[in-house]
Amino acid sequence: MPGRLYVTDAIVLSRFEYGEADRVLTLMTPGHGKLKAIARGVRRPTSRLGGSLEPLAELRVALARGRTFDVVTQVSVGHAWLHLRDSLEATATAWYLAELADRSLEERNAAEPLYALLRRAYELLDAGMAPGRVARWFEMRLADQLGVRPEVDRCVECDRTLEAGQRFRWVPPLGGALCERCPGPPHARTALSLEALKLLKAYQRLDVEALAALRLPAAVEREAETAMRDFLRFSLEREARSLGFLDDVRVGR
Ligand SMILES: [Zn+2]
User: Fold this and answer.
1) Which of 112, 144, 159, 164 makes a 20 to 30 Å CA pair with 27?
2) Strands (E), 65-180
């Protein structure tokens, strides 16, 4: 007996092949959060589901409740975001953001804000915004949603306002930037330039249009990237696997 049917928007976060012709998908949905679903026979050429059930798209999926996995019964493509796939860096970034979303979500808990955030990030990648800018924008808002907004205005130890002319360090375990007077933990040696600190502030304050228009030295963008990766690694406890792939893409371009 098939279980109760329901229909939802969904984005495929990850998938693996299962049995002879099936595929198990991790879906992110607005109302049901993250869930595992099985697409039976999807790898057969004759499958009705096959062509549509792809990642990097917003899907409309009909599911039947199952004991272990819910079962995909119908699927159509809502938004394909085809331009996103034109660039390998945009594609790799989209996978990285999907993985961050996956690791941030509990199964079966409603996740409207995070769903909307990922959807918007894919729209921006599709529209051609620089993948690095989209990724930092996403990471900063994800940190907000997780309740771990990094401190970039005041020293995380003494609460002094961070100002030009001082030197700063970036200490993710303490929650952000540290002033030059505070010792911090013994291994806290990662210097943060004033320019990178300003860029992190910009990611907290500016909207995407303003962020897309910024002109910055590549070194400052790399510094902000490292800072946000380190910060989220502490927040999410382990390094995202897809970062290795993203780095490979960059080296090869
Ligand atoms: Zn301090």
Assistant:
1) 144
2) 70-79, 168-171, 176-178
